[in-house]
Amino acid sequence: MSDGSPLRVTAAQAAAFRLQRQHLALARSHASIVDVVRDSAGIQAQVQSAAEMAIWTRRRETRRGDVRRALWETRELVKTSAMRLTLHLIPAADLAIYIEAMRPASRHVLARWQGRLKITAAHVRTLIDTVLDALGDGALPQQELVARAKRRA
């Protein structure tokens, strides 16, 4: 490689690399839940049980309570709207990286939504204030946050 020649990789080598990296190779992973989520570049979590199963598939010693504990007690994982604006589990320590990486696409999507729905900067500021006020007592599930925002509107 040092001679400047291109790296040649077969399809089988690429598939093996991806399976290993995603903790899906035959040798089961002994990595932590956070490492599995990080190495998988997030775990889709639109449905909590599907996220738990996806992690279990990669780390068989994982139990549902382990994932929930990492989310709600130790806060090592966060559930957030990420890639493709779907809910994903990502390592809490990596949240800033994901936000920064998705910033250009997020701004574009938000600008398009605002234009389509005729939302002004004042509307956005009111929404942000409403959310911050609602979260003043601590974290809330999305449904409760929406319900509080509707009551305030």
Tell me what you see in this structure.
This protein has helices at residues 11-21, 33-39, 48-58, 64-72, 95-117, 121-134, 142-152, and strands at 43-44, 77-81, 87-91. With 153 residues, the protein is mainly α. Helix 6 crosses helix 7 (142-152). The mean pLDDT is 88.
What labels would you give this structure?
single chain; 153 residues; mainly alpha; 56% helix; globular
Distance between the termini: 62 Å
Mean pLDDT metric: 88
- Please write the string of helix (H) and strand (E) elements: HHEHHEEHHH
Cα gyration radius (Å): 20 Å
SS-based structural class? mainly alpha
Low-confidence runs of at least 5 consecutive residues: none
Main sheet: which strands, in order across?
Answer: 1-3-2
Overall geometry comes to globular
Q: Give the total of beta strands.
A: 3
Count of alpha/pi helices? 7
The amount of beta strand, in percent, is 5-15%
Q: Helical proportion?
A: 55-70%
Largest sheet: 3 strands, antiparallel
